[in-house]
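User: My instructor asked us to take a sequence, write out its structure as C-alpha cells, and then describe one feature of it. I'm not sure where to start. Here is the sequence I was given:
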Amino acid sequence: MNVGYFVSDAFTVARRNLIKIKRVPDLLVFTTLQPIMFVLLFGFVFGSAIGGIAGGDGGDGSSYREFMMAGIFAQTIVFGATLTGYGMAEDMQKGIIDRFRTLPMHPSSVLFGRTISDVANNVIVLVVMSATGLAIGWRIHGGVLDAVLAYALMLLFAYAVSWVMAFVGLVVRAPEIVNNASFIVVFPMTFIANTFVPAENLPATLRTVAGWNPVSTITHAARDNFGNLGALKDPTLTAEQMRSRIEYTWALEHAELYTLIWVVVLLMVFIPLATRQYRRAVAR
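Assistant: Let's start with the prediction itself. The C-alpha cells for your sequence are:
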C-alpha cells in the first residue's frame, strides 16, 4: 500500500463529507443548536436546583454551570460519534460505497476519511459549546496548555468511539437503526457517570460503575485541566480531601492514562473490525 495515496484518498473522502455539510447547512445548524440547547437547559434548569443545594454561589447555579461544562462536552462528543455510524449506513443504503468501490482507492481510506471528517465536526461543536459556556459564566481557570490537552483528549476519545460507530453503521441495515442501537448504550453510559452530578454521591452500585466509566474519566480529566474541580466544593473538606473523595477509583485517580488506554483498546479492536466488515459489505 502506498501511504501517500492512502492519506490522499482518506482526506479526499473527508473533504467530500465536509462539503456535504456545506451544501446541506441544516446538518451544521442542528448539530450546533443541540449542544447550545443542552448547555442552556442543564445550566439553568439543573443549575438553579443543584446550585442551591450545593451552596457557595447564592443558589444562582453559577458553580454548577462550571461543574457541568466538562460533562456536557463529554456527552456531546460521544453522542456526536453516532454521526459516523449514521453516515456509513446512509452511504451503504444510497449506493455511495458501491461508487467508491469502482474507484482506484484503498478501501480503508473511506473509513478513515469518514472518521476524520467527524473529528472536524466535533471541533466546530466544541467551539460553539465553549462560546456558549463562556457566555453563561463558565471559565477556564487552568493554563492554556492544560485546556488544549483537555480538548485534545476529548477529540481523541471521540475519534476512537467513532470507529465503534463506523462498525455499527456497516453492520446494521438502515441508518435509523444506528441511532436506536447506539442510544441504548450511549445514553446510560453518559448519565451513569460524573457528567452532571458528582459520581461520589451516587448509590453504591452506580457509584462503582461511574468510577470506572471512561466517560467519567474523560469528564474528570477535562474538569481538572480546566480548573473546574472545585466548582461544587464542600466547605467542610480541604482541597486534598475533596480530591480524594472525587478520585475514589484508580481510573479517576489516573483519568488521563485510563482514558488513553480506552482510546488505544477501541482503536486496536474496531479499526480491524470495521475494515473487515467494510470489505465484506462491498463484496456483496
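For the description part of your assignment, you could build on this observation: Residues 52-56 have pLDDT under 50 and may be disordered. Try explaining in your own words what that tells you about the chain.
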